[in-house]
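Folding Problem: From Residues to Backbone Shape
Fields: amino acid sequence; protein backbone structure tokens
RECORD BEGINS BELOW THIS LINE
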Amino acid sequence: MPRLILVRHGQSQWNLENRFTGWWDVDLTEKGVGEARAAGELLNAKGMLPTTAFTSLQTRAIKTLHYALEAAGRLWIPEVKDWRLNERHYGGLTGLDKAETAAKHGDDQVKIWRRSFDIPPPVLEDGSTFDLKQDPRYAGIAIPSTESLKDTIARVLPYYEAAIVPQLRAGETVLIAAHGNSLRALVKHLSGISDDEITGLEIPTGQPIVYELDDNLNALERYYLSER
């Protein structure tokens, strides 16, 4: 049966600092490196070895993939990096402290920005500190100025269908190391979660999620590998 493994990157520096990160490129903390390695060790211990891998263009996800594959003895497998697996773009919230933002705008407003399905945060102004238009990794890409989860799904799912589904159909065991919201987009699709219910789904860092799929790539089972 086809098998898909999802891993959210290990703790990043801005996870630790409780800041909105989105597309901004931050590194893993020591704890995050440990989480990534532990994920790979778990894959190895359970015999859940990927044969091909996908990740975003962001350092925290790329390093998580590499640490996990190294720990699993699979650093040699093919991998593809693509911006469509990037984290949701947090727009004008990028870089802000979450608690300070809640104190300024109110908990309810911040909850809407963070958790609503289709309401994006304020846009990121051109030329601001976190403007990525000069970043060479995004040359030729129409960088969003903000994204809701709905917007994130609109780029993740077509990429999944075009690039990842063919690998699954070919019998590969696919590992995707990505981000909370790009993975939530996939989980919503694969598990048939409603727009309302997906707002309450939180994906922990460094914990492999396994999808056992049928031949039509419908989800037969979804579980955390640590619970098996």
